[in-house]
What we know:
- The protein is mainly alpha-helical.
- The protein has 26 helices and no strands.
Amino acid sequence: xxxxVPFWVVFTLYMTFVQGLPIEPGYTLRHWLEVSRPYVLxxxxxxxxxxxxxxVLISLGFGAPLSWFVNRTRMPLRSFAVVCxxxxxxxxxxxxxxxxxxxxxxxxxxxxxxxxxxxxHPVTITVNSLLGMAWVLGLAxxxxxxxxxxxxxxxxxxxxxxxxxxxxxxxxxxxxxxxLPLLWPAILGAGLYTFMTAIAIFEVPAMLGGGGGKLGVxxxxxxxxxxxxxxxxxxxxxxxxxxxxxxxLPSFFAMYFYLRALGRFHGYAVVTGRGYASRQxxxxxxxxxGIGFLWLYLILALGLPLLVLIWGSxxxxxxxxxxxxxxNLTLRNFSQFFPAxxxxxxxxxxxxxxxxxxxxxxxxxxxxxWLVIRTKLSFRGVLDVTVFSSHAxxxxxxxxxxxxxxxxxxxxxPLAGTLFIIGLAHAIASLAPGTRVTNAALLQIHxxxxxxxxxxxxxxxxxxxxxxxxxxxxxxxxxxLWTALLSAREVTMALFLVGTNNVVFxxxxxxxxxxxxxxxxxSAALLLVAIIGAVAAITMSLAKRLGGEAANLWL
Length: 555
């Protein structure tokens, strides 16, 4: 595990200097020289930064106010807001991009055609643009920002705002001058997380114009260097390695900056043992502003995408709503998409991945957390930081490296085209969030419980299985749920590693959309969303019965 992050970094850098596959002889600087051409320097890099910073602004613009309304005020429907914002997670990013493409495009977009009927003028606005990519990514990443900031929002000491009220300082000025500066660590962490995610994500930019050299960003250039869509494919593993290195560089820089900044945030501590109180602000009539803002986000991120997908799934050829379109509605797509994606195998593969990866990740995460928190090993701190740093390795780089490893070892170890290699990629990408869950849960269990078991001469394995794990069951269940949802939603790594026998459901939807079968893709996407939602509902219901922390996260 200690070698996981260094291996990925070194292997990706190594690929930038080799002629072809990593086992082939010869080294070259040609890939760096080719990637430094004007197209990359003046188009790809600026495009990537525009999408990344735009996603940060949009996700913070929605996530931070929503977190304030829910956690710092007495706005009605707060519990409802938390549940609904959590539900946005069940819609994969590429599915949201599909819906927004059907909603906003000059050819057949519902929004465009509706405005054209009202104004009698062509409406050329499109989501297939850099701002469109940032918009969809920002909406999809808002729940992460919301939950990352909510803890700090909830813990903010109300005595500070009450002192400001005594001094007759307005609510807005108190928010801007007192509360927001104190929330800066949480906002910075959420912003850096969003930046690291947006700069590396592939499926949304590829679906919204980044494929085939149009509106290229680093992630799409990496993918299409290995999986070209040109009539005469020219695979360039070295160029893909350079793009992967350029993606990892800002991610590691952002993580380093955040970890270093954490050491300077002691001055932001407001939770003390004396006089601490966290009270909520009465908004008065302004509560309707908060409710309206909540509904605006839910309509944009959840309501509209699902309605558009339902509309698209009921048509053989997508058309905006009209009398003629209503007369041609059909359920035929729901009976035809399974044969179109290869039968039941993609769905079965996805269910196997969801179950298998979640169990393996939580088992490994528990063992790592035990070594970090319950032992006195000299390298336990390095182990924890290394696992956490793996989040800086983008999913597309993990998929690319495993793809090359499978090709290189194909003579001896048949990894290519197996479900195992996709599961391995998912497990590696999920270890960082998995260990955060198990670390937090294990820290809440007092060491005296284990010491009591030792006094009774119970082996360590017994104290783990009979004492520690039962107390952590809700957290393990929640962590397993999150890991399973990531496996069901993930498409980038699977596109690198997919073969004839290991097609997963998300890749099947992607291929339907790519080949122009919008109705079939929409109906399959609705089934995927329904499966993810059902798994989440069942797991959260079970967690609530267990009476643990997982259920309380949604209340």
